[in-house]
Amino acid sequence: MMLEQKATEFLEVLSSSEPVPGGGGASAAVGAFAVALGMMVANLTVGKKRYADVEEEILAMREHLEKLREDLIALTDKDAESFAPLARVYSLPKETEEQRVKKERVMEAALYEASIVPLHIMEKVLESMKILEILGEKGSKLAVSDVGVGILFARAALEGASLNIFINTKMMKCREKADELNEKADDLIAESRKLQERVYAGVLAKIR
Q1: 130 vs 146: CA distance, rounded Å
Q2: Distance CA 160, CA 165 (A)
Q3: Confidence category of residue 1, pLDDT binned at 50, 70, 90
Q4: FRET partner for 201 with CA separation of 20 to 30 A, picked from 20, 107, 121, 154?
Q5: Quick count: other Cβ atoms within 10 Å of Cβ 54?
Q6: At what angle do helices 97-138 and 144-169 cross, to 10 degrees?
Q7: Could you read off the pLDDT of 128-167 as tens digits, one per residue?
């Protein structure tokens, strides 16, 4: 897995001319960092007498976040895997009509598949944002600034992943499928923006 590398190694590959990881993988990685911050807040909350009445809820959220972190780590690799078939399409011949038709068909399928992974990244990140909101309200007040950092990372990850959908759907011939993917992405962006702004405002109100 890419995120099993040292952070510096991941950044070296990301900085290089290698096609993957790219924006999608980086978005998944940033989403995983957002989730990790949420887990830290949960870990700083459990076991404290002051938060005993919400400990069971916090533990459940920590478990959920751990699963989301693993999902996003896996999606970092899946994003790279989904790019490979798309990259291969460009080398297909298109000299005859039959070859052109085949290339167009394969390209359409590859573009669609390359859009599904970033859509899943967006969905997982939005899940984490909803948990971060609760942690901002019920988690350790000493770590509320980390909720703020997490929610900002999460929004960047979600909107970053959306760009990997839009660049693919723009090239799709089937506008019905493209519009469906775009609409899902737009809905996730709209919900996440409201959530981020609300959570961030709440964090600022507590620390300033």
Answers
A1: 15
A2: 9
A3: low
A4: 121
A5: 18
A6: 170
A7: 999 999 999 999 999 999 999 999 999 999 999 999 999 9
Tokens in use for 169?
């759907």
pTM of the predicted protein model:
0.91
Q: Where are the alpha helices (DSSP H) in the chain?
A: 7-15, 23-45, 55-89, 97-138, 144-169, 175-207
In angstroms, the CA 20 to CA 122 distance is: 19
For residue 134, how many other CB atoms are within 10 A of its CB? Answer: 17
Question: For residues 147 and 136, is the Cβ–Cβ distance under 8 A?
Answer: yes
DSSP category for residue 50: G
**Contact yes or no for 128/154 (Cβ under 8 A):** yes
Query: Whole-angstrom Cα distance, residue 120 to residue 86?
Result: 18
Tokens of 163: 């760009």
| DSSP letter (8 states) at residue 49 | G
Tokens read off for 33 = 């960092």
- CB distance 132 to 138 below 8 Å: no
Exposed, middle or buried, 152 (CB in 10 Å: 0-12/13-18/19+)?
Answer: middle
In the block, residue with structure tokens 């978005």? 27
CA 127 to chain centre: 10
